[in-house]
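Hi everyone, sorry if this is the wrong subforum. Our group has a chain we'd like a structural model of before ordering constructs, and none of us has done structure prediction before. Sequence below.
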Amino acid sequence: MKYIEVYDYLERASESLIRGDYDETLGHLDAASRLKDQLEPEEAEMAQPCLARLVTLSEAALEGVTDAKKIIEDAIRNSVRLEIYDGVGNRNEIKDRTSPVNRF
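Answer:
Right subforum, don't worry. Here is the predicted structure as tokens:
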């Protein structure tokens, strides 16, 4: 029964996706896709919940990456306008010529 092998690959893909190991995830999905043509129709139907879970996890990962990108972009934009003051309130000049991202 090839379903057990496909199910195992899909579960491993889910676990590696949760860990953020996208190369491993793709490897498991590739292995599962090579076996899909060997599944009986009812076995293919049984795999649908695993695939639906992968879709949900993938969408969540994409949303997380999109949010992280926005946070980083905001940090870069804000670091350009960053002003630093000493303990008595005098503005300190930054003499570092590196890009704002590399400063922090």
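For your construct planning: The chain has a mean pLDDT of 87. Helices lie at 2-19, 22-35, 41-46, 48-80, 100-103.
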